[in-house]
Amino acid sequence: MNFALEQIRRMRTYNPPIEQRAKFEGLRLDFNERLAPLPAKVIDAIRNFDPQRFMVYPSYGDLVVKIAKYAQVDADSLMITNGSDQGMELIFRTFVSTGDKVLIPSPSFAMFYQVAQVQGAEIIKSKYKSDGNFPFDEVMELLKQKPKLVIICNPNNPTGTLLSLEKIETILKTTSETLIYVDEAYFEFSRVTAADLIKKYQNLFITRTFSKAFGLAALRIGYLMSCRANIDEMLKVRGPYDINQIAKVAADASLKTLPELKQYCDEVMKESKPFTEEFLREKGVEFFPSGANFIYFNEPFAGFSAELEGNGILIRPQADGYARVTIGKLSQMQRFAEIFNQITS
Ligand SMILES: Cc1ncc(COP(=O)(O)O)c(C=O)c1O
User: What would you report as the CA-atom Rg of the chain, rounded to the nearest whole angstrom?
Assistant: First the structure.
């Protein structure tokens, strides 16, 4: 007897290759994480946390106000979430019903499909263009079908490509009924944000995270931005203690290390990424322009990712012979290039 809901029964479990990697001794260029040590202030804040506090339910003080200041939105337009995955889930649970159409330009991040399927939504996939660009004209056309929600993953995982703010606003202007959800998990790298538009468009939702540039992936903390009315509704759905206390302490401390954050993001975007792009160009490897800390490229031969792993570097193979490599510090990308050269010469 299978008691699960019909739409759950039809699903497959999302099983990212996570289990062995924490112990992996080489370079982890497979999950778009931060690849530099955490700032000392963040480590100290975590170390100074009194474990006796574990007995007490978490409370978040003025963290929302502090994040809102960082994100430059009003505090009543923001709520904290258990990773941006929970933000995504809250949007669906609060606003999407069984049978609603959800437009997901694809390929994109696996969790979008999971939460849409759990909700029993009808997924419409419009395909990213062969050069990695967002299928803007097709999305504009599909908006005529009045989907309940459109996802704009910006930059998109796995392609890394960005949709301009002008085009996001064009989409927002076209419809006031369809919810427009912009995932900005990689904002610190792209510096492109639709946050200013929250005041103007009631149907806009944005999620962000402390998992990537801030380096707190294991602690699970992110945030969700929208107009106050939407946030008030989603607060009814989120549990009052869904974010753990250490994550709160670490996020709070992280916001006091913004110069270090900028320094890391600048190294990734202004040194390591151009270095890696130049390297791939020289090797004649096709790749997409990226606004994030990863690059989507055509593998030089089948089984390339596995061979790289055998040589101490994890990357993430994708469909159709493509792979995604996380960009870290310059020295790490030099190592990537060295091993790449070794196995392709
Ligand atoms: C586009 C995108 N959104 C959201 C997430 C999930 O982030 P979090 O760790 O905040 O749940 C990821 C993680 O890979 C991602 O690539």
Answer: 20
Question: What tens digit of pLDDT does each residue of 209-266 get?
Answer: 999 999 999 999 999 999 999 999 999 999 999 999 999 999 999 999 999 999 999 9
Q: Is 184 in the pocket of ligand 1 (CB under 6 A)?
A: no
Q: Does 252 sit in the ligand 1 pocket, CB within 6 Å?
A: no
For ligand 1, say whether the CB of 33 is within 6 Å of any of its atoms. Answer: no
Residue 65, token pair as written in the block: 């106000």
What does the alpha-carbon distance between residue 97 and residue 8 come to, in Å, rounded to a whole number? 14
**Domains identified in the chain and CATH numbers:** 19-38+258-344 (3.90.1150.10), 40-254 (3.40.640.10)
CA distances to 37, 88, 110, 266 from 20, in Å: 21, 27, 20, 30
Q: Which atom of ligand 1 is nearest to the CA of 210?
A: 10
Which residue, 290, 275, 274, 345, is CA-closest to 322? Answer: 290
- Tokens of residue 310, six digits: 């055998």
**Do residues 299 and 305 touch, judged by C-beta distance below 8 A?**
yes
